[in-house]
Amino acid sequence: MIRINENFLKLQSSYLFVEIANRVSAYQKVHPDTEIIRLGIGDVTLPLPPACVRAFKKGVEEMASASTFRGYGPEQGYGFLREKIASNDYRSLGADIDPDEIFISDGAKCDTGNIQELFATDIRLAIPDPVYPVYLDTNVMAGRTGNFSNGRYNNINYMDSIPQNNFIPSLPETPVDLIYLCFPNNPTGATISRDLLKKWVDFARYQKSLILYDAAYEAFIRDPDLPRSIYEIEGAREVAIEFRSFSKTAGFTGTRCAYTVVPKTCIAYDGKGQRHKLHGLWNRRQSTKFNGVSYPVQRAAEAVYSDEGKTQVIETANYYLKNAALIREEITSLGFELVGGENSPYIWVNCKRDAWGFFDLLLEKAGVVTTPGPGFGRCGEGFIRISAFNSYKNVERAMARIKDALN
Ligand code: PLP
């Protein structure tokens, strides 16, 4: 008899987005003529930068001719892209990362999910609340958690990100083995200073634990005092794996290209306390289960690092940051407290009431869709996330409608 992995039964259904879709469609039935403005999901709206489109097309052309055709590529990604990433995204920051420590993939979502295959089932996890749900659900699937009760899975060290700690989790008070951090954060938009990040790195070194650092929104950092990479912090090469993505950096959400950095000095231990290099394990995992990202896509990603590409991706992120600044200004002027929207495309608003109630109010009175905070964890109660991924014109219209609705 074929049996299932019963850990899947512990998973909570993705209630949030189904529920949002239901409420939006119910609203639309009653108000068929109102154009809904979506500031809910975290998907980009601007097209690929022209430099990427050109390189993408050229890559496809090469596939069309026998002399330039490419079959299976290296599972870890082509050298041309890994080298550009190492020099532009790391060495330029003074972070000592080699091209062969960079693994190209088809998404930070897959990588943040897949990486936990490298670790024992009975490790102690520290996961922020609120959180990008992938970190949590993939560990549930792997059997690292207990059942769900009272809004949380048993056997997880939840790290509250709340106004009292400026939405940056405090160091756990009990020992933990695997720590998830994400800055600039989804969903809160909070950022972390170098000093605070250093505390985490020191903590991980002291504890012999590992940090999984998700920097998918790094491209939105404008403040030079904020770290763009965890490897800017001394000692991080021994205790941190970093995830990055071209999704938000260059509009690749539908094109798919990302990368994970596993330094060769990054160590984990077996049951006897023997040291093992995670680089070798991840390389083994990827070459066994993954056949690489398509050649034209990697060429398109490489174009992000051309002079033209660099200018274009900065312009794209600036466009969304301008939207974010407008949202911050308008929502603050209505008397709400918020975080994010500076160095981040997300704004986390304290709605001073039930999050779903506020979501409904904005939908019904303003025709604007946001994301209720509880979908990201128990600490999201009383908050909504507003995303800056839309046109400036739509953001202006959405803010005007919200003002009317609340005044
Ligand atoms: N990490 C975070 C924090 C995200 O918010 C997202 C996407 O929304 C991802 C990773 C996924 O990125 P990708 O499109 O590369 O899979």
Describe the model.
The protein is of the alpha/beta class and about 400 residues long. A seven-stranded mixed sheet has the order 2-10-9-8-7-3-6, with helices on both faces. Strand 11 and strand 12 form a beta hairpin. Helix 4 runs parallel beside helix 5, helix 11 packs parallel to helix 13 and helix 12 crosses helix 13. It starts with 14 loop residues before the first helix and ends with a helix. It binds pyridoxal-5'-phosphate. The site of pyridoxal-5'-phosphate has 14 residues, from helix 4.
The stretches of 5 or more residues where confidence is low (pLDDT under 50) are none
The SSE order reads HEHHEHEHEEEEHEHEHEEEHHHEEHEEEH
**Assembly state:** single chain
The average pLDDT is: 96
Q: What's the helical proportion of residues?
A: 25-40%
Measured between the Cα atoms of the first and last residue, the distance is 62 Å
Radius of gyration: 21 Å
Strand content: 15-25%
Ligand catalogue: pyridoxal-5'-phosphate
- The class by helix and strand makeup works out as alpha/beta
How many helices in DSSP terms? 13
The strands making up the biggest β-sheet line up spatially as: 2-10-9-8-7-3-6
* Biggest sheet architecture: 7 strands, mixed
Envelope shape: globular
Number of strands: 17
